[in-house]
Amino acid sequence: MVTARVWVLKKHFEGFPKTSDFELKKIELPNLKDGELLLESVFLSVDPYMRPYSQRDMKEGDIMIGTQVARVVESKNPAFSVGAFVVAGSGWRTHFISDGKDLHLLPAGWPESLSKSLALGTVGMPGLTAYFGLLEVCKMKPGDTVLVNAAAGAVGSVVGQLAKIGGCKVVGCAGSDDKVAYLKKIGFDEAFNYKTVTSLDEALRKASPDGYDCFFDNVGGEFAYTAISQMKKYGRIAICGAISQYNDSVPQKGPYVQIPMLFKELQMEGFIVSRWNNRREEGLKALLKWVVEGKVKCHEHITEGFENMPMAFIGMLKGENLGKAVVKV
Ligand SMILES: NC(=O)C1=CN([C@@H]2O[C@H](COP(=O)(O)OP(=O)(O)OC[C@H]3O[C@@H](n4cnc5c(N)ncnc54)[C@H](OP(=O)(O)O)[C@@H]3O)[C@@H](O)[C@H]2O)C=CC1
Ligand SMILES: CCCCCCC/C=C/C=O
Question: Name one Pfam family in it (predicted).
Answer without folding.
Answer: ADH_N_2
